[in-house]
Amino acid sequence: MIDHIGISVRDYDQSRAFYMKALAPLRIGIAMELKPEDTGGRRVAGMGADGIPFFWFSEGAAQEGLHLALSARDRKAVDAFHQAALEAGAKDNGAPGLRPHYHESYYAAFVIDPNGVNLEAVCHLPI
Known about the structure:
2,3-Dihydroxybiphenyl 1,2-Dioxygenase, domain 1; alpha/beta; single chain
């Protein structure tokens, strides 16, 4: 089981604003921020739920080809994530819908975030 993941982002402020808006429908927000003097010179944010960070990002060179899938509580949250992410500046990479080639209830949406990350929200529950 993965406890947390960390990525580097090209523009910390832009990424912070993007993730705050795009991940809000998934009930994910800033759980912790660290100052450069605490991290060896980089601003770092930990996003999560219930005060527990599991998705970290920091200033640095962005990684290409990264895919990050986040759980959604229901299909409406997947839809809201997709809309919020597009409004926040993401590029569409797959509209909300069923992906039965994974399994019959796999409902997901995909966007490319400002750092090139293939960001997905997925709900595995049947309607």
